[in-house]
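The methods section describes the discrete structure representation at length, but only in general terms. An entry of this sort, consisting of the sequence and the corresponding backbone structure tokens, reads as follows:
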Amino acid sequence: MNKKPYYITTAIAYTSGKPHIGNTYEIVLADSIARYKRMQGYDVRFQTGTDEHGQKIEDKAIEAGVSPQEFVDQTAAEIKRIWDLMNTSYDKFIRTTDKDHEAQVQKIFRKLYEQGDIYKGEYEGMYCKPCESFFTASQLVDGKCPDCGREVEPAKEEAYFFKMSKYAQKLIDYINDHPDFIQPESRKNEMMNNFLLAGLQDLCVSRTSFKWGIPVDFDPKHVVYVWIDALTNYITGLGYDQDGNSDPMFEKYWPADVHLIGKDILRFHTIYWPIMLMALGLPLPKQVFGHPWLLQNDGKMSKSKGNVIYADELVNFFGVDAVRYFVLHEMPFENDGVISWELMIERMNSDLANTLGNLVNRTISMSNKYFDGVVAKTGVSEPVDAPCHHRQRGRY
């Protein structure tokens, strides 16, 4: 029997530092979906990885007194260690410094330039270094970055731009015709009203003010900016080749069944990425799911606030499965969830020790007492069991 392919991805983690439990939630959620789909008989491809270029990385490497490559090697290894510690069953861990990825990014950039979707211009605006994003004055909130709330600085440089507006109507029509493309529903409304219907600006897709990136091969003083570099990992990780020599795996698994991402990067995945795919003549992913954040009691985790909880600290104390259970249990899909040491302890005691632990303990005790600890298939069933048997046969 041919198994139906199922391709699920997480966002690739930025290699600026060690991921906290909020970042780790995404890989655990994706893993639980991948495991469930495998159990249902799907041929699952589960991809994750790291986003390794940019000004922030270059600056952090200088601070640490190492080369950018050494810096990302260390950080990517730490991210992979945590993903492995959390017992996640990914099939591919892609790095944007992988040579095959870099080669495809250059080919894709050139293709978009040659067909007139990318043009050279000059950027002048307010720049947020942590988000690596440009904003116009009207997009700022109280004079600060609308995404992270930090200070911005004026910046001006030569850059290549992607003609987003050329594909805007096509994307609006696609979203209207595919109601499940952006989920949950509230996120779709936000993207349509705040960005697409308000009018799309052309997107800055190269930089000259730093060097740590993939060079534009026909204009080497430019490096390819994060959008084309990072987002294309979803196809390059399947062996996509711009010259038409793609790996059979690409034909098998693309388009992705779901891109699982944080709600803060929804704009990039539901506007920039689909438009790039349209320009390349490739099908769009079936769904982009923007999950909420896992917050500390006092708000979003950040190293500057000093309120970060790390997955490995929790695992050392509670064990892997207990931590996986907690993050999956506490996260509604529409609203942010909350994590703290106190909540972890409360959940472990109430659910795992008292409810499940008590059930397992009683079951084992009765099995030992009445059946000498042997579980035998007796074939006994009553009419009340019939719907369960029927559902089980239907599922498997």
Summary: The first strand starts at residue 5 and ends at 10.
